[in-house]
Amino acid sequence: RLLMDKDAKIYVAGHAGMVGSAIVRKLEAEGFKNLIFKTRKKLDLLNQTAVKEFYTAEKPRHVINAAARVGGIHANNTYGSQFIYENLQIQNNLIHYAYESGVTKLLFLGSSCIYPRNASQPMKEEYLLTGELESTNEPYALAKIAGIKMCESYYRQYGCQFFSVMPTNTYGPNDNYDLDTSHALPALIRKIQEAKVSNARKVTVWGSGKPLREFIHVDDIADACVFIMGLDFRELYEQGLTHLNVGTGNEITIRELAELISGIVGFSGDFIFDQSMPDGTPRKLLDVSRINELGWRHQISLEEGIKALCGWYMENFQPFENKTYSKTLAS
């Protein structure tokens, strides 16, 4: 493994978001001290000139791109134009000017929604572009696919060590709890916690509760990203890989997830499944055999992770306060 120099200047794009902040925690725990952060006010990643000037001034050796417009099924289905435009713009700027400024290594974070809606399960890396995407998040998925192909193209044409990682559904501290834009797991934690506090007897769950999903704690994602940054990306490309899946290899239905959270929180009421809301892809399980073979496995179980997150949520958010929970643009 090619270990990164502890003194190397590393830029983590999206450091304020759930994944970016976890990557920063991991790097700092590993002894990396020369980290660059820029808030959105200080660096607008949608601004081509600003990004170019940032690279020229700071000259980072490594870049981890965890900046993205993200959201759950409702947000993806409603704000498709923002999801495709902003994500394309962010990654185009970060990847191209990383090449121009001579960045040694760049890691691009994608999403498991890049795979076809009806892909065989579990989904292998080579299933990319073998079928139609899930319509509810197609704009976001297309942007992420473009990012993978952009990294690959800069490697093929210029020899850049730019590579991509595809995390499964991620949860953890600093997640988004806005019920209109959040993903399923944080939305359920908020709904069930608030129902418990208010002594409500029912909680509404979007969809049928039948879709199967895989969830991984954000600290495991951060650990995987630092692990992958220590690999030789040229060897991965030579093996035919353009990206690596990162997940647990375990899945659970949305109904079972709601029941698991209820057991942890102590909510004993009933669930109402609102089938007017979309289910999304019926099943979405990643094949993680490739990264497992390279020597990495997840460490945090779903029950352990949710227990910790429920405690974090109650410490950081007061139920029923009229506040904005959204952190959709993690930069």
Averaging pLDDT over every residue, what do you get?
90
- The coarse silhouette is globular
Instruction: Say what oligomer this is.
Output: single chain
Query: pLDDT below 50 for ≥5 consecutive residues: which ranges?
Result: 320-331
Main structural class: alpha/beta
What is the count of DSSP helices, taking H or I runs of 4+ residues? Answer: 11
Number-wise, the strands total: 13
Strand order of the largest sheet: 2-1-3-4-5-10
Query: End-to-end span in angstroms?
Result: 29 Å
**Main sheet attributes: strand count, strand direction, barrel closure:** 6 strands, parallel
Give structural notes:
The protein has 331 residues and is of the alpha/beta class. It contains 11 helices and 13 strands. The chain has helices spanning 18-29, 48-58, 73-78, 80-100, 138-158, 184-198, 218-229, 233-238, 254-265, 289-294, 302-316; strands at 10-13, 35-36, 62-65, 105-109, 161-167, 169-171, 202-206, 212-213, 215-217, 243-246, 252-253, 270-274, 283-284. The strands form 4 sheets. A 6-stranded parallel sheet has the order 2-1-3-4-5-10, sandwiched between helices. A 3-stranded mixed sheet has the order 11-8-13. The longest helix is centred in the N-terminal third of the chain and has 21 residues, at 80-100. Residues 320-331 have low confidence and may be disordered.
Topology (elements, then pairings):
Layout: E1 10-13, H1 18-29, E2 35-36, H2 48-58, E3 62-65, H3 73-78, H4 80-100, E4 105-109, H5 138-158, E5 161-167, E6 169-171, H6 184-198, E7 202-206, E8 212-213, E9 215-217, H7 218-229, H8 233-238, E10 243-246, E11 252-253, H9 254-265, E12 270-274, E13 283-284, H10 289-294, H11 302-316
Parallel strand pairs: 1-2, 1-3, 3-4, 4-5, 5-10, 6-9, 7-12, 8-13
Antiparallel strand pairs: 8-11
Helix pairs in contact: 1-7, 2-4, 4-5, 6-9, 9-11
